[in-house]
Amino acid sequence: MSKVRVGLVQMSCTSDVASNIQKALQGTRRAAAGGAQIVCLQELFHSPYFCDVEDFANFSLAEPVPGPTTERLGSLAAELGVVLVASLFEKRAPGLYHNTTAVIDADGSYLGKYRKMHIPDDPAYYEKFYFTPGDLGYRVFHTRYASIGVLICWDQWYPEAARITSLMGAEILFYPTAIGWSTQQDDDTNREQFDAWQTIQRSHAVANGVHVVSVNRVGLEQEGAMRFWGGSFVANPFGSLLATASHDQEQEIVCTIDLAESDRYRTHWPFLRDRRIDSYDPMLKRFIDE
């Protein structure tokens, strides 16, 4: 299958977990009705972005993966015949938690999970308080419609993660995301940050010759410090934008991508052919001191 239709569900969240899950289910249904075959939800879609504060009470939001939410999503995936990419707060064991994305195939079967590798710690993004870095490595999931790689939010700034996942055979890179503008920042700073965020991910598409799908949340949640900037998008293997979402509206986007484009772009722009893998050992150092 060369052409695949991907669905992006961009939404805001409240403290009502049941309501958030229902909204995500409804958004998935609308995307599927629009022809989506693979639907991606935003990072931690079932709750507000709780990492804006360090609060032990928020650990109660976590659940096993697979678990009750993946079971519910599996039923929906089987009903609609869609692949689901679903980001969840995973409770692995008492006191051990991960930021995890589950992948569910179009027959409802659970294919596995990816645990976020790069964990930020910035004002209003106190993720190191909650999440243990992933230990499953980078993953590719062979779904009914495509072989997909999943990376999560802060992972999107690291070309190494995109490269490795692409070299493992991912035809599409999905990035469930939660990122926004500080309510205290000026417009120029906000624009620069958004442009950098989009540019780095489009560059992953170019460097690796794969489609990139980034799904962000939107809106101001619980009077938090961040106004999530939405802007979910799909880029082709040369970084061209095929679809973009609003900065301030909840919406579903369905976009057709042609997986055969990867071969065409990689042939005409043979970055993979010309890689000097014999020279990359210094990449394993934290910094190259004199």
Structure description:
The chain has 290 residues and is α/β, with parallel strands linked by helices. It has a single domain (3-284), classed as Nitrilase/N-carbamoyl-D-aminoacid amidohydrolase, CATH 3.60.110.10. The protein is built from five helices and 15 strands. The protein has a six-stranded mixed β-sheet. A six-stranded mixed β-sheet has the order 6-7-8-10-13-14, with helices on one face. A hairpin with a 5-residue loop joins β13 and β14. α1 packs parallel to α2 and α3 (159-167) runs parallel beside α4. The protein starts with a strand and ends in a 22-residue tail after the last helix.
Topology:
Elements lengths: L2 E8 L6 H17 L4 E4 L26 H13 L2 E11 L2 E9 L5 E6 L24 E3 L4 E4 L8 H9 L4 E5 L3 E3 L4 H22 L2 E5 L2 E3 L5 E4 L3 E3 L5 E4 L6 E8 L2 H8 L22
Keywords:
single chain, 290 residues, alpha/beta, Nitrilase/N-carbamoyl-D-aminoacid amidohydrolase, 6-stranded mixed beta sheet, 28% strand
